[in-house]
Amino acid sequence: MIKSFSIVSMLLAPLVLSQTFKVEVTRSEAALPEKLLQQSKLNKEFEVAINRFSTYRYTGKFYFGSKASDADLILDTDSDWMLVESQQCDACLPTHRRYNPLTSTTQTPGSNETFILYLDDNFYVGDDYYDTVCVADSSKYCAKDFKFIAVTDINKVTSELAKIDGVVGLGPDDPSNGPSFIAELYNQGVIGKKMFGIQVGFNQKSEMMFGGWDDTWMKTRGENIYFYPQSNQSRWEIELRDLKMKNTSFWEGSKKAVIDSFNDSITFPDAEFQVFKTYIESIDHTIDCDNTKGTCRFNDDCTTKYTKLPQLRIQFGDMNTFAINPKDYLFGQVDGGNRAFCTFLIKKNNKDYVQIGQPFLKNFYAIFDFESGSVGFFLHAYTNSEVNSDGVERVVTPQPPITDDSPSDDKFPIWAIILIVVVLIGGLLALGAVAFIKIRNKRLQQNLSQYNQLEGTKGKAGKTLQ
């Protein structure tokens, strides 16, 4: 089974594709309320501050090896492997060569195989090592003998993604994925629950909790938490039932949504994007969409459309719809002539599922529960969004979680093969039975004819004797 992750794919070892997302994390217990700090210590959970790396991406502070070499790693909910640029990477920018396996006395070489990892259109080459990795504190919250990739080469030093120290994958703890840092913290007793919660924002502070979630971020005390089960055990994929603006639905059959914190946008498969493109261009003729690039924009400041464009509403596996306001799906920029233009953070992808990225996560605190295999959301304190029960009734056939043993689109289902074999055997048996009956009836007919002839001969002989 080939998995679609935007961050890393392992080509020269077991093949694994990954995707990534960026988040900066720094840790300070002094920043936490005393009550929450005591509760965190009791429940073996801890919270760290998240800082923005770029407009819509974030990183966290990690420490590697016996030297506690610090590195700011992008936090990605849709990837699995952890990678960090090493001092052996000549092509890496000098300021980002953070880890030196040759000077760490706690490291152990891994498989001695070369890994090629892909992040968007960038690739990273590296070797695997086992070493101590800590988060937020150089000695307190650590996973010992954790397996990760030390990057030794990259292909693009001019791109934005070359200006990072590395990535930590926060995907599910599945055997088909790379080593899970969250799972290892749990297995080593650093956190009490195999889960994390994350709150990201643009102008407000952002935080991530390891081992639980922080309900003090709720917009109102007792805010509803909406949990949705995974439909794919190797990524944070949940059921999707609708995408719409006002009463116009863009839903064209895509039944999956992947929570992808690396993605700075919400991206649609081509079928949904075409409906969205037609709709958005029809309600405002100043908006122009490029079907090749899969983007839409208009030449003006974004604020001019805040009150004119409708909310984007997303419906997952129940009747609730989650609202995204125009100010969260529009992104303002200026061109070379210092003229303002505005880009939609609703774009086209080349996948068969919707990617739910930063415009959504800016408004909803997200909970990723490894043990129950579910993702939860609630409105956070800084959002102006809302959740309404105005979804559509849509019958979506439940799909079992995809595993390596599950039939894929390119494999003929086993049950169909068995059915065909049974039908063929039954057909052969039926033909054999018909042939047997015909042969038997023919022999009986021959015997009957011979008997009749014999009886006729006896009759003639009797008459002659008389």
From TrEMBL:
- Give the residues annotated as active site: D76, D260
For the keyword RNA-binding, the answer is: no
Q: Which InterPro entries match?
A: Aspartic_peptidase_A1, Pepsin-like_dom, PEPTIDASE_A1, Peptidase_aspartic_dom_sf
Per UniProt, the keywords (alphabetical) are: Aspartyl protease, Hydrolase, Membrane, Protease, Signal, Transmembrane, Transmembrane helix
Going by the entry's taxonomy, the superkingdom of the source organism is recorded as: Eukaryota
State the signal peptide span.
Answer: 1-18
Keyword check for Acyltransferase: no
For this UniProt entry, which segments traverse the membrane?
412-437
The biological processes this protein is annotated with in GO are: proteolysis
Which residues are in the Peptidase A1 domain?
58-378
**GO function term, MF aspect, one:** aspartic-type endopeptidase activity
Tell me the PANTHER family matching this sequence: BETA-SITE APP-CLEAVING ENZYME, ISOFORM A-RELATED
Q: Which family does it belong to?
A: Belongs to the peptidase A1 family.
What protein am I looking at? Eukaryotic aspartyl protease family protein
Organism this protein belongs to:
Stylonychia lemnae
